[in-house]
């Protein structure tokens, strides 16, 4: 080996990425790991067998392209009462099993820390749900970067509620209050706030630990891009007092080949094939199909499914609706037969090849729960949204999409609910139909939304190109990490 190769090898950064075990967190962290590998970092993703199965095909494709990336699989602990293979938190996970998965994660913590010591990475990137990893990195004398899910905007808004408690100054749950101190004037109600922000809950303390661990970390990485929410990126850095880099949209950056788009996430469950779906989309006119998906963590009672079904049928638009296996199968199967007969609708059971669907010219708009993975993917595809937030930080994301960026319309959901809780609100078919009409119709509001989201789509593509904002952020971050490695190596040799 020549001296140049030895020098390159010595300078090559080694990183461990530790994603959380919910699909909505797992996939973006794996995308980030793939992004760092694309830029010359030696990457090991550490996870458990069932979670590795979700993304392994993407890692194998990247490895086949000559990138230095692999998965290190750690056996999931056997907890009494937890069925083998249940390792992921999603809409199918009952609350008692979620608690048991949490127990297993606390056992895994020691194994993960031991791996950090054995593998001797130059830095680690861990999910925000692993606050302990900030201390683990400090013990090893290496930087920890924290992946912060959602948007800069939602974290700024949550911080504002924690700091100023504007919700305590109104008389009822339905009365609006302003979110003070933010770049835009925005209003919410108490009912739209997560319950852990309204009153102390166990999750309130976990969020506090996560925030403290972020402040102890070297910095945070977001899947966002500056042109999307730059004012809130700046605000966030000021409020947190820490470094942060927007290096997105990561899904666009690492999934540019058709094979990557089709293979992203777990294999399709249940009925039908992707080929059938594409043939169906190919038979439709441009911008004529509405895509309806509420992410991997949400489900509805039959009363709400009935309202959605009627709204879709009454809308006059063709549609694709992603439904869950644990939704009311009898009602949905009957509905599926009816819309198949008229060729108006296409139901996908379980996981959908979302990037492929959003990219298709026939897709015209998206009904979304306002999870940021879907929001970014819709923006990349240049599609306006119908915002239907349900839980987590989604009501904040709705404000960003509808009131700040003006690239979506609200379905009018008023009540935040917990994961695995149906809540007491049923959004009626008339409200759903009106929002669909605004996002899919040819009216002035729809034309303006399409124009604005197309501008953001173009900006997203520029952000990841050479000299784009996210490209520069990633280069700057990698250079900083290389300098830290060099300093550490020098001080060790001295």
TrEMBL record:
PROSITE patterns: UDPGT. It holds the Pfam family UDPGT. InterPro entries: UDP_glucos_trans, UDP_glycos_trans_CS. It comes from the Eukaryota. One of its GO terms (molecular function) is UDP-glucosyltransferase activity. Its EC number is 2.4.1.-. Keywords: Glycosyltransferase, Transferase. Belongs to the UDP-glycosyltransferase family. This is Glycosyltransferase.
